[in-house]
Hints:
Blueprint: H1 8-19, E1 25-32, E2 38-44, H2 54-69, E3 73-76
Parallel strand pairs: 2-3
Antiparallel strand pairs: 1-2
Amino acid sequence: xxxxxxxxxxxxxxxxxxxxxxxxxxxxxxxxxxxxxxxxxxxxxxxxxxxxxxxxxxxxxxxxxxxxxxxxxxxxxxxx
Length: 80
């Protein structure tokens, strides 16, 4: 039996935490399209919006996460 910290889901969660770096994850939603494709929407902490031009890195976060896990993800800040 494999320990919880070594499961694929757990590894992908920790990769997600590492990719967003200085910011914190505020929430996650999984969007399932009509064709069955899954899209992970990651909402980042709104108070981190101003520091270290994180806004410009959102596309980079998506590309890195896709390359490492082969899963689609969209990173965004919550709308006020």
